[in-house]
Amino acid sequence: MGENIWGRPKSPVNRRQYGPGQHGQRRKGKMSDFGTQLRAKQKLKGYYGDISEKQFRKTYEEAARRRGDTSENLVGLLESRLDAIVYRAKFVPTIWAARQFVNHGHVNVNGVRTNIGSYRCKAGDVIEVRQKSKQLTVLIEATQLAERDVPDYIEADHSKMVATFQRVPGLGDVPYPVVMEPNLVVEFYSR
């Protein structure tokens, strides 16, 4: 992507702005409209970790089907995924760790064990780390990281390891480290 899309301090993009290798510093050509839209889609899809193209496309189709602004709906649907909420609540350091954390069965949603990363949470759902998993070092280290803050649409209590999904966020509520353009994603898929 050429950008530090997760805002991590150890990203190689923080050291140099050009690509790796012998030809990394060469001039790049002007990007086409299709290229700009594709890059915006890949950036948004890549930000949420291991989402397959098929999953992302279905999420877009669901966002287009709903009433209202499609780009706002798309961001709302992506942010209401269980793995995204676990990541936003600062239970784990990265989005991939969030997906693995959920897949390994460390999370309960409303008291029921859930191991599907793409599970769509509703407003008011309570996401809780299971009792057996509360002493994991990954969990303890991640809650103490000062790297990012818990957004206002998630209420997290790190002493009890419980998070509540307050509401479905809009594009302005989501703390992306770089500029995301879901309107270009909508243009890409509506071709």
Automatic annotation (TrEMBL):
Gene name of this polypeptide: rpsD
Q: Give GO cellular component annotations, separated by semicolons.
A: small ribosomal subunit
Which family would the database say this protein is a member of?
A: Belongs to the universal ribosomal protein uS4 family.
Query: Keywords for this entry?
Result: Ribonucleoprotein, Ribosomal protein, RNA-binding, rRNA-binding
Q: What is this protein called?
A: Small ribosomal subunit protein uS4
Q: Which CDD domains match?
A: S4
The RNA-binding S4 domain extends over 80-144
How is the subunit organization of this protein annotated in UniProt? Part of the 30S ribosomal subunit. Contacts protein S5. The interaction surface between S4 and S5 is involved in control of translational fidelity.
Physiological role: One of the primary rRNA binding proteins, it binds directly to 16S rRNA where it nucleates assembly of the body of the 30S subunit. With S5 and S12 plays an important role in translational accuracy.
Listed under GO biological process in this entry are: ribosomal small subunit biogenesis; translation
Q: What are the boundaries of the region Disordered?
A: 1-35
Tell me the Pfam families matching this sequence.
Ribosomal_S4, S4
Record-linked SMART domains: Ribosomal_S4 (SM01390), S4 (SM00363)
Organism, as annotated: Aureimonas phyllosphaerae
